[in-house]
Amino acid sequence: MIKKVTQHLSQNESLLFERSSPGKKAYQLPDLDVPAVDAAEALGAENVRREIEGFPEVSEVEAIRHFTRLSTWNYAIDYGMYPLGSCTMKYNPRINELVARTEGLAWAHPYQPEALAQGCMEVMARLEAALTEITGMDAVTLQPAAGAHGELTGILLIRALLEKRGNPRKKILIPDSAHGTNPATAAIAGYAVENIKSSETGGVDLAALEQLVSKDVAALMVTNPNTLGVFENNIAAVAEILHRKGAMLYMDGANMNALVGIARPGDFGVDVMHLNLHKTFSTPHGGGGPGAGPVAVKKVLEPFLPSPRLKRAGRKWTFNYKLPRSIGRVKAYYGNFGVLVRALAYILARGGPGLRNATMDAVLNAVYIRKALEPYFDLPYTSPNMHEVVFSDERQAKLGVRTGDLAKRLIDYGFHPYTVSFPMIVHGALMIEPTETESKLELDQFIDAMISIAKEVETDPQMVKNAPYSTRTSRVDETTAARKPVLRWKPA
Amino acid sequence: MLDACGAATPEELFAHLPEAVRLGRPLDLAPGISEYDIVRYFRDRAGECANGYASFLGAGIYSHFRPVLVDTVVSRGEFLTSYTPYQAEISQGTLTTIFEFQTMICQLTGMDVANASMYDGSTAVPEAAMMAVRATGRGRVMVAKSVHPEYREVLATYAKHQGMPVTEFGYDAESGGLDLKDLENRIDDLTAAVIIQSPNFFGIVEQVKAAAGIAHRKGALLVVIFTEAVSLGIVEPPGDADIVAGELQSFAISPSYGGPYAGIIATKERYIRQVPGRLVGQTTDSRGNRAFCLTLATREQHIRREKATSNICTNQALIALMATVFMSVYGKQGLRELAEQNLAKAHYLAGKLKPRFTGKFFNEFVVRAPEAANKTLLKKKIIGGLPLGRFYPELADCQLLCATEMTRRADMDTVAEVLA
User: Fold this and answer.
1) Last residue of a domain, one of A348, A370, A395
2) How far is B219 from chain A (nearest CA, A)?
3) What's the pLDDT tens digit per position in A421-441?
């Protein structure tokens, strides 16, 4: 029985270009208080463009209806649980949006004099300090724009340190359970990638690691808890093996929502890590960004951090650009400041005890789901899980129904699907991360939906394979989209 | 819930963590505070910034009016609190707006395809350079000194470890535009890309066609960067470029002390498979209706891993949506008028001063100014232009001034008086 949702009308809407007609306008400009100039004279006739061909022309009410109608075609956290594993889709407090728009912050130009930017710098310094405490590391840069950008920054830091020690080395080790960004990052930083097979329990295989770490290995990139939601209990031993051979331990902090206030990477041997403020610290995903990917490091890597760095000079903040060993800039200006404001607002609202409670609730919610769904779905790795749980579709696949089909059927029940077919070490994975912000009521509805789908697979597998039924758009032909790419509108 | 989990306390759920890794104390962070206190904290910080000042800063970040509709749209929870649109059936809102975004970026830049956004303009530059390296099979990159200095710094950071040598070439000391002779002398058969910016960092409209000619004769690609998107309302788009990379901050994205912004990469059809980041394509659903989905994912990290075209994953979707709403509100006529106002304001101000360069400019220009001038202006609650010495020692006696539709005539008159 589908209890959570009822179908309702949703408005059709064409593309802006199709509803455009000449002369319609949604803008008002002030009267020009200086003389107009002749564009050909000011720019040179050859530099003046004709009209922007095809650009839309709509009225204000058409514009707002257009975007409002389109918005209703999206699922969102504001509609309900969004259990995407590894993505930490928690509620996004609206106070964060309000404060990020505070005039003196939102309109601060990155080149305004430091004396007129002290408030911005104070916000950044306070966030750096909070993240340093949360991670147990020694220093933080806020410059990277997102998780993968943080990874690149972190690997370049390792490279810079090893180069200074005489040999940047050649390889980065990456478990086969890792996010795709990890190997892509290593390659961009000029390293070869060597995959490590996970152990039987899904963790880093210590014996295999011992064998693989040589003088060519610069670092191991590990996610902890890993993508199965399982804490690497051997993490200290992993760090010890690497350090003994002069290699570094990089931690992908995508799953930090399982650790805040409970355990700190800096205390278990991690040398450098990134955080995803758009996951752990509640800044909204916005349909795919913006994010922020601060990088936290141990003392030994601090001199290499991107330029500039915040510095206290008496009672004022200043930017220090005299950093001879810095890897340089990874981004113009100082970071995604607006995202940093939101993350600090979240940290201030929760406070130390609140952050720890959030972690405990996130884990409790995930364990609760695991216990309820274990009788119905195959659980390939049985170690205790933390903030997320990974099932496989093994039982359902015997009837021809795959994880992607189950996910599409979940849509009919009013939920966003879990993460499908990841991590790759689990064949047909269902990766479920509820986060701490879901109530027991919402969790129970989700569990009921999953159990109901498991039963549907047994009675009518074909029905499940053709889902979803209640969405305004049915299954989308992704194959044709890739084979004959149409990436922009053109007039008929 | 604890019963169902077989635990007596929430702490028991963490019992499997080795004792040694556990933090044996509370975090050293104050307890949580109320909404009211949070608002007050950030208002106080904002009060330590530049409220009430007029500003003549540009240099990559511009003060343009943000139409009210922009925040109205991006505040909708359906856009704000959704994830990357991997599940197309319940993400058509985001997918459709990205398709419209890609289309408008093509129309603006004169390119055939555009991606769903990059982090910002600065990081789009190395991504464009890496694209050119893949497309040409060559390794060397040339970049004009008139490209935003911080963008060049970011390029250097990325290039250093990829065996991608970067050579800079100069600007003409009189016009402030490209030194095409210098480019001709330095370009060689190993050059993958020539990177220029137009309008350049000094505000000057570059000779894109001539640069394209030089690059193409040597088999290199021309990459054109822009930082002032409003210029595209009136300045000829860089149709001779092979790749256009730029920053959309001018399109209703608040300066926000350096980010978040939205970068773009647009290119010609033939380089489509070298594009980094996400792309949205049109298709149909099983009922035959038009639908959109993420496509050509075999370029991307979650499929190709270390062989991906880029490591980018999260991009700037919500910020790109701000730009999309901005472009829809202004439209064909509005963007033109907006650009005309910017042109008029900057030329009014320039008419009262002596621009340092002779090149044609859009809404910013360089002037010689005594060092103390900005201090005098600050006393009048005006932030003057960007002093250029930190980036160009040879221009240590100069500053870069910007005027937009938001700049008032009275403030320009004051600036002209102080700087003259």
Assistant:
1) A348
2) 25
3) 999 999 999 999 999 999 999
